[in-house]
UniProtKB/TrEMBL annotation:
This is Flagellar protein. Pfam families: FlbD (PF06289). It comes from the Bacteria. Keywords: Cell projection, Cilium, Flagellum.
Amino acid sequence: MVILHRLKGAEFVLNADLIESIEANPDTVITLLNEKKYIVSEPVETVVEKVFQYKARIHSLPVANRPTKEG
């Protein structure tokens, strides 16, 4: 999940796993897999960086109760 801002400044949280595309038009438009679109105040580069950071955090979390080779 990434925190973004609508053009009027309202903050919202977007599920980064649902992003299909991000484009500058000139405003940043995020299209989700379900074709829903969000226009945000952050530039494309910032959204991409937030998604990268989110993915890095997710992949670096320890996995609880991971089974071992012994059991």
